[in-house]
Amino acid sequence: MHSHLIFQLNKQFPNPVPTETLSQQFNCSATEITEAVEELRALGLVIHSYNSGFQLASPLYSIPGIKTYLNTQTFGTQGLYLFETIDSTHTYVSNNLSTIDHGSVLLAYSQTAGRGRRGRKWSSPIGKSLSLSIVLKEFSADMKPTLLTQLTAAALQQALSETGLPVAIKWPNDLLINRRKVAGVLTEAMFERQVLQAITIGIGINLNQSQSDFPTEIHTKATSLALETESPFFADKLIAQFLQYFEQFYQDYQQSLDPEPFLSICRQESAVIGEIVTVVQGDKRRDVEVLGIEATGELLVRDLSSQEQMTLISSEVSLRNPDGSYI
């Protein structure tokens, strides 16, 4: 009942929904509705009580809501799972890989052990952010898994841009709005006896956080869609749009092995091309000018000290903001 209850509350947001109305919709007693609300509250979701009714504190996505907009052949139609809270969707996939189909999509209101690149913790306050994993089991041997991060970043940039916001890609896996991080991508391969079994692509999007929801150390580096649009953000349509862009790019790449359709977006919407950035490789740091993105997905840069041109495959790239902070 949880997902459908959230769907009904979301449809009326920001107005409360009378308990009697919910009882009629679900053909159950008012007591059962109240018990379901209390179960959601116990997970950490904020649901207000008003005059014998209930109101969400902020919009929440739901499976019925996403399916209202979803128009894919594979991704999200082969399996669409929603967890209120979980350690991480990636861990769940790893532990249940044999029973999860190609194209399955897992979502969570909160991850207690979610992480980004290089093992960093991804801040995921319950009900205010999106955690999503896509499971890939069908891929050509000639496809380059390293390019899937940029394919996903391009799909996410296209979907986020539907909001009208200026969304840029910080190579290879971060999405920025006004030079603050709003989303990130993490691609991981799963092997068994050195044979590739699956690839999971995880994304995290900041949806309805206020500035105070972010840890102090990233206050000046992070933003949310609610902060940027100055209104509560409804994510059902965004999720469906992202899956549609992802499916288009993935199927085209699988068939043609040509990464140019999504790499061209990574170039056009780049936050780093033409910028001076700091590259971190192990314990070494160097300042470089970013010249472009190669057909291989590698970052083409010029070292400011040696003037040498080089390509980067997978490095930490820090973009300096006008206030001196780095993202």
TrEMBL record:
<keyword id="KW-0436">Ligase</keyword>
<dbReference type="GO" id="GO:0005737">
    <property type="term" value="C:cytoplasm"/>
</dbReference>
<dbReference type="InterPro" id="IPR004408">
    <property type="entry name" value="Biotin_CoA_COase_ligase"/>
</dbReference>
<dbReference type="GO" id="GO:0004077">
    <property type="term" value="F:biotin--[biotin carboxyl-carrier protein] ligase activity"/>
</dbReference>
<dbReference type="InterPro" id="IPR045864">
    <property type="entry name" value="aa-tRNA-synth_II/BPL/LPL"/>
</dbReference>
<dbReference type="InterPro" id="IPR004143">
    <property type="entry name" value="BPL_LPL_catalytic"/>
</dbReference>
<dbReference type="GO" id="GO:0016740">
    <property type="term" value="F:transferase activity"/>
</dbReference>
<dbReference type="GO" id="GO:0009249">
    <property type="term" value="P:protein lipoylation"/>
</dbReference>
<dbReference type="InterPro" id="IPR036390">
    <property type="entry name" value="WH_DNA-bd_sf"/>
</dbReference>
<dbReference type="Pfam" id="PF03099">
    <property type="entry name" value="BPL_LplA_LipB"/>
</dbReference>
<protein>
    <submittedName>
        <fullName>Biotin--[acetyl-CoA-carboxylase] ligase</fullName>
        <ecNumber>6.3.4.15</ecNumber>
    </submittedName>
</protein>
<feature type="domain" description="BPL/LPL catalytic">
    <location>
        <begin position="64"/>
        <end position="254"/>
    </location>
</feature>
